[in-house]
Design brief:
homodimer; alpha+beta; 60s Ribosomal Protein L30, Chain: A; CofE-like fold; 2 domains; 5-stranded mixed sheet; 3-stranded antiparallel sheet; 6 helices; globular
Chain lengths: 252, 252
Amino acid sequence: MNVSLMAIEGLPEFGPGADIAALVTEGATRAGVPIQRGDIVVVTQKIVSKVEGQLVRLADVAPSPFSTAWGAAHHCDPRLIELVLRESRRIVRMDRGLLITETHHGLVCANSGVDVSNVEGGEVAAILPKDPDASARRIRDAIVARVGHDVAVVISDTFGRPWREGLVNVAIGAAGLAPLQSYVDARDPRGFALKSTVQALADEVAAASGLIARKLNRVPAVIVRGVSYDSANKAGGGAKDLIRPPERDLFR
Amino acid sequence: MNVSLMAIEGLPEFGPGADIAALVTEGATRAGVPIQRGDIVVVTQKIVSKVEGQLVRLADVAPSPFSTAWGAAHHCDPRLIELVLRESRRIVRMDRGLLITETHHGLVCANSGVDVSNVEGGEVAAILPKDPDASARRIRDAIVARVGHDVAVVISDTFGRPWREGLVNVAIGAAGLAPLQSYVDARDPRGFALKSTVQALADEVAAASGLIARKLNRVPAVIVRGVSYDSANKAGGGAKDLIRPPERDLFR
């Protein structure tokens, strides 16, 4: 049993309107790691946002008095605060200069996933894709059309966690694989029933990709090969299945 | 850039007192994947607990009136509740039949990490190792003594997360690598300063190992090869560095 993670190196800059599927498929072949049947292609949220034009010039954001006051109190750019609030449907925590929000997608993360690093001059913010699962489906369908066989696509983003230091990659979009792998009715080798073991497979794939797609290495796409998964694209599914419904959540 | 995850298959059952380093080193060679310089060996908490005798017969646990009442209200074994409380220093959430606790190590997880699956007959509970970083150091030192070169060891456990469905593996013990990789002073290719990007490398390694070490596959050890890391064993460090100090935590 063997899983390989391969960086697709040498990819160009991704600008608005770029064809991610074409660039990644051709880039993988050129890099000597052509996409194979069953591969999971992980692409970073950053390139998806850029390609989809999910970029906001901070100069175009007019901060409210609330954002201005919070920014002044915590030495943050009030235009960025305003944008973070605009991208959220609820504030989960607003404390000690940190802003943990629930995005319109239902993702709970710092600053609504708004990211000002690695974008032109620091004055342009990348916001999350409007519908990351739809983005993943589009990229997947276009890759499948090119390579002629089944693949899965995961869109990764880098999130913090409560209780633990450091960031890990999680899946904010997915297509072609069931993001949750359930062992609810399985039995372990001793015959003892496992009650409710549900593995967040897509999140583990995203986290694994973080082992090579380091920020500074400019590796926006990684191939994960050898993972067995349910290719559950017919079921709809998607990474939204990884979002715990509020009524089941003890920490909202 | 390439990372490989290799299951060490064919390992025997690990009983109390077993020599993990010997079994894993020899098992890897026998499985055709001898441990190489710089490899990260991930072993599951379950085998470490078993080898260290961290097993409790539920018949030996006398539940308090509090545990008995909670167990009755939520259809849980009151002896298990009692054990979970004994293994915790604080209850973080106790709601809807779920018990999220802070263990004596400072780990926040469900049921203090107490696990009744996959252990003799379901009547024996495995509790976490007393000091998982010390366990990781012992295993690492013994592997290094056998193979004659540097390796790192991560002890993984399977945790839930707030806000997200499904379980992922995290690192509860580590030796031979800095569990956090910091980009605090690094600059991205455009010269824009990254303010505080700290990657939870050991957690990403643990999560990646989950892609092959599925519960039912009985793969208690995985080799992760090709990850660049700081071999910071001199600094002490360990997976306890991944635990966010309460004063910096918005969710305790």
